[in-house]
Amino acid sequence: MKYLAVCAIVKNEPSIKEWVDYHILAGAEHFVLYDNGGEIPLPRLFARYIAENVVTVIDWPGDKGQLSAYANCLELYRDKFAWIAFIDADERLVPKTGDDLRLLLPDYEDAAALGVHRVVFGSCGRLTRPAGPFIEHYTLAYAKSMQVKMIVRPQKTLRPLSPGHFEFSPGCACVNEEHAPVRGPLSYHVSDLVQLNHYSFRSQQDSCEKAERGFAAQGASMQDFYDHLDLPCFEDREILKYLTRLKIFGKKDPALICRLATEWSELGLESYLETGIRLMETGKLDRAGEVLGLMRCHHGQTAACFLLHAAYHRLRGDFEAARRAALRALAIQAAPQTYLELMLIARETGQTEKCANLARFIRKGLADADELTPEWENRLRTE
Questions:
Q1: Minimal CA–CA distance to 216: which of 63, 55, 69?
Q2: Which of 174, 188, 291, 379 sits most deeply, having the most CB atoms within 10 A of its CB?
Q3: Where in the sequence is the domain holding 288, given as residue range(s)?
Q4: H helices within the chain, ranges in order?
């Protein structure tokens, strides 16, 4: 199962390829695009992405088709993706504590959705559409909105109620990044971990074209564009951490771009374990942490995953996180290696008696199974 998909309804969006490429950089693994008509032929534009099973284009003509498109996406892909983000083509999800959205989401898997707040950007006074990635040219925001868009757990989600909120299975709810319940499309603004950049107004040229084609769910007015020019604004450059890579993407073969979207979802548990162990053994703990985070997304409910997380946290000196991970591994499988990890945590935190008790317990279990080798004896030394 792929971990994170993004769904949008699209009509004549000139930056849609940049939108897809950007979200690949940010961790999305698949895109479901509902083609609402227009002059940009999405199947041709994304032919290579479609062939690589990174983009799916569904013809979706008619007015005000956003909610029906979202409902269709849930019906088709409920069991295909762990998470689906429902956003617009003029929005960008921006993780703020790292570069990969997927690494945020495991902490919210008990919820039905994560509500992400909009930060609303303006035109920066531009009259015409600038060349190159547009995120480079629009860095002035004028609102931290109460509006949310949701990244949902499709198996817990029944139907869309608006573009920004959904009905969930009984007993399930959306939360914000602080784990506070979000009961509708509005909530108090919080965006310390992740935000949704909403480019509601780009250049005057873009805004005129947007007004002519209309929003997916409601009409658009140029008066809104002119009104926003008088609003106070503030600089927000968080998204620019992707700019260099996004420019490089523009010159790459689409097959290489697609590979970035699929490589981690296709990787087996053993390959994750080998990569993580190699990085930890060579002292590359930051990169190891990223790999282990992705392993948690795709193989999270395995004892081996939690055990390697325990070793990683122990190496970083976070012994409480290491103990929690080891206990989660132990709850799945009572293996000698897991008890050994608990022993190592006890030894490194000065818990001499607990360390000795664990060593005796492991030694007895291995002896009873006739598996107490000299290698194990060496590993069970408590000094």
A1: 63
A2: 174
A3: 270-379
A4: 16-25, 42-45, 47-51, 66-77, 204-213, 222-228, 243-249, 254-262, 269-281, 285-299, 303-315, 319-332, 336-348, 352-368, 374-379
Tokens representing residue 349 in the block: 């935190």
- Which of 13, 62, 3 shows the shortest CA–CA distance to 33? 13
Strand partners, 35: 10, 59
pTM of the model: 0.89
Tell me the one-letter amino acid at 55: V
E strand or H helix that includes residue 182: strand 181-182
Please report which confidence band the pLDDT of residue 205 belongs to, taking 50, 70 and 90 as the band edges.
confident
Residues 81 and 161 in one domain: yes
Spatial contact of 29 and 262, defined as CB atoms under 8 Å apart: yes
Residues 173 and 54 placed together within one structural domain of the fold: yes
* pLDDT tens, position by position, 143-186: 999 999 999 999 999 999 999 999 999 999 999 999 999 999 99
Are 160 and 70 in contact, with CB atoms under 8 Å apart? yes
Mean pLDDT of the region 210-237: 66
pLDDT of residue 217: 41
Residues 251 and 280 in one domain: no
What sign for the dihedral angle of Cα 255, 257, 262, 268? positive
Structural domain contains residue 319: yes
β-pairing, 157-162 vs 165-168, is antiparallel
CA dihedral 340, 344, 347, 351 (to 10 degrees): -70
Together in a domain, 183 and 118: yes
